[in-house]
Amino acid sequence: MTVTLGLLGTGVGLGLWSLLVWLAPPRPGLSDLMARLHPEPPQQPLLTTPEAGGWAVRLGAPFTTALRSLGLPHRDVQKDLAVTERSADVHLAEKAALALTGLVLPLAVELVLAVGGRALPWAVPASVAMALAVSGFLLPDLTVRAQAQRRREAFRHALGAYLNLIHILLAGGAGIDAALHDAARTGQGWAFQQLRRALNTARLTRSSPWTTLGQLGEELEIAELTELAAVLSLAGTEGSKVRASLAAKAAALRSQDGAAAEGQANAATERMALPGMLMAFGFVIFVFYPALTQITASL
Question: Which residue segment(s) compose the domain that 173 sits in?
Fold first, then answer.
């Protein structure tokens, strides 16, 4: 009875909240209103989001419109999706499909048990269904966040190598534009592909390369790339010395990567401490158990 009242109360609360949002929609901010009065041509994103298919996408596709009306996905999730090159519609379809699967699966198991004459109390499958539905709805967000974080770390590592290549080319007498393009063509992998795409976009649109590199840094949320674009902008517009700045930034990135790797190694060592202690405790019990049984039996 308590679970039923809780579910009914939750449904009524969601209905009242939806009605309130429909009757009194949130007011836009001043910056949004000013942007509407003076619209600027939007920049084309440098990161691509190819479409993908699968059973989850086909199952959850009818629910994507409803989820978008709720403001999903959020801004942070959209940035993570851009980094992982995934479509927002595919992401929302997977969320809906996993939530629906988690909601239906316990009820199907309960139906099978009821047919076999071993039905569980209805509160058990209902609670499990709600927990699995919420977990399935949140799982894609957590997965995308973890994948985006790994890609950002890999990009920072590749950026350090890119800065070293630029420094070598500048020391050999190359210009800034030539050094940027030649260094991007040298490397392989996803990070260098994004750098080459940004530089090619700058060449095709007849804009400065540091502008597209700064845009790429904002889309990826990598402050080091944005700082690199600012340094290159000073070198290209004001003629400042850039070799020393790039060398210092490359050294800082190398030290940062080394500190991050050391921290990950220390964290892995700490995680292994508990299993080692449990194994040692189990070994001690295994060795002394026969003696303890003999002592207690003789008392």
Answer: 154-256
Global pTM reads 0.71
> In terms of residues, how long is the chain?
299
Examine residue 160 and state whether it is found in any structural domain, yes or no. yes
pLDDT in tens, 154-210: 998 899 889 888 888 888 888 888 888 899 998 888 899 999 999 999 999 888 888
Within a domain: 221: yes
Query: How far apart are alpha carbons 160 and 251 in whole angstroms?
Result: 8
Q: How far apart are CA 130 and CA 6, in angstroms?
A: 12
Residue 141 confidence (pLDDT):
93
Q: Which helix (H) or strand (E) holds 9?
A: helix 2-23
Residues with Cβ within 8 Å of 89's Cβ and at least 6 positions away in sequence, in order, are: 51, 61, 64
In a domain, 106, yes or no: no
**Cβ partners under 8 Å of residue 3, min gap 6:** 123, 126, 127
Cα–Cα distance for residue pair 242/231, rounded to 1 Å: 7
